Amino acid sequence: MTQDEMKQAVAAAALAYIRPQLESDTVLGIGTGSTANLFIDALAPLAGQLEATVASSEASAARLQSHGIPVYDLNTVDAVDFYIDGADESNAALQLIKGGGAALTREKIVTAVAREFICIADQSKLVHTLGQFPLPVEVIPMARSHVARELVKLGGDPVYREGVVTDNGNVILDVHNFPIPQPLATEQAINNITGVVTNGLFAHKPADVLLLGTSEGVKTLYAE
Ligand code: 5RP
């Protein structure tokens, strides 16, 4: 099975997971990236039955709307029942690195509101220790150099993601060479740097379930 086939399989598995629980007033949170895009496409046949979605990026909102699926501002809904999104890495506790698509802040906001976060990913994303994937940090543009210096003090090697402006008008620093054995403490420490909007560690609020695409099929994992 190729990586793309595994992503397709977990997108279908996520739909099968939520479908029996869909009610007339269910609000779905929709993530960003290639795996989330496959989930959006899998949702298309249900467009007429979906009351509301909220999206973690302008790109995902546009893709949902292209299928005729209604997208709402998060401020106009009372709750988000399920949030479905990919990840760049997950450990066994379902703590994640996200933000490869630069949507980390809105992803973290929708995660904060969601009743259940269903992460969908292929097997390459499951790691023992987070940090092989460079950790994205969204930064207010004028604070870029200050934040970079502070990230070096924490032991990382920040690299400015040239040419990328987030949906919130900010920039991204990707922290390389930065193993993360204590995700809770690291998430907090980076968020405490003045000028950081947020970082791509989802440790304080990890995924609730991980649908992992493997060569033996989709595995359903819960936090260890
Ligand atoms: C976007 C994200 C994505 O979930 C993450 O980058 C995984 O993307 P893909 O499904 O394309 O592998 O966090 O900001």
In short:
By secondary structure, the chain is an alpha/beta fold.
Explained architecture:
Helix content is 29%, strand content 26%. The protein has 224 residues and is α/β, with parallel strands linked by helices. The strands form 3 sheets. Strands 2-1-3-6-12-13 form a 6-stranded mixed sheet. It has a 4-stranded antiparallel sheet with strand order 8-9-7-10. A 3-stranded antiparallel sheet has the order 4-5-11, covered by helices on one side. The longest helix is centred in the N-terminal third of the chain and has 16 residues, at 3-18. The radius of gyration is 17 Å and the shape is globular. It starts with a helix and ends with a strand. The mean pLDDT is 97. Bound molecules: ribulose-5-phosphate. The site of ribulose-5-phosphate has 17 residues, from helix 2 and helix 4.
Q: For the record, give the distance between the C-alpha atoms at the N and C termini, rounded to a whole number.
A: 27 Å
Shape: globular
Derived structural class: alpha/beta
The percentage of residues in β strands lies in 25-35%
Number of DSSP helices? 6
Written as H for each helix and E for each strand, in order along the chain, the element string is HEHEHEEEHEEHEEHEEEE
Q: How many beta-strand elements?
A: 13
The biggest beta sheet, please? 6 strands, mixed
Mean pLDDT: 97
List the ligand species: ribulose-5-phosphate
Low-confidence stretches: none
Helix content: 25-40%
Overall radius of gyration: 17 Å
Widest β-sheet, arrangement of strands: 2-1-3-6-12-13
